[in-house]
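User: Please predict the structure of the protein below. I'd like the answer in structure-token form so I can feed it into my own downstream comparison script.

Assistant: Understood. Taking the following sequence of 156 residues as input:
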Amino acid sequence: AQTPRGNYYPVQVRNKVGLVPVLRSGLGLVPGFLNYFPDAPVHHLGIYREKLSHQPVEYYNKLPQVPNVDMCFVLDPIIATGNTAVATVNLLKEWGLNGSQIKFVAIVGSKQGIDQLRQEHPDIRIYLATIDDAVDNYGYISPGIGDSGDRLWNTA
């Protein structure tokens, strides 16, 4: 294709790409990804972090019986403790994907959360915009961005 600055050679992704937003906050990343992968199926996973133990609790899973994708992007704006991220990847591997098929996309991650995700799943790729140093006693990244789901949906 010709652009004002020269020729552009688009890249064609041959894999069947799927999107897996972690509810609720991951939904905010879906429209941008659908711009690039308009035919991608969107499979929702509902996992929240229990307030006291910070352990993940699965409450919703709309993965089909058998994987219908060759590769998926997990969409969750924050990797704080890493517990939800690990649980999400566990579910995708139980579903039938291997680590090379899973790409975890977040905006901000803590060193602790990234280390935990890498330790449990060294075979996946993680894409982040920034890394913050600490997680506070409430399980939030510090300085971080607060509860991204509440901020996104104006429920804070």
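That's the full token string. Residues 14-153 form a domain with the Rossmann fold fold (CATH 3.40.50.2020).
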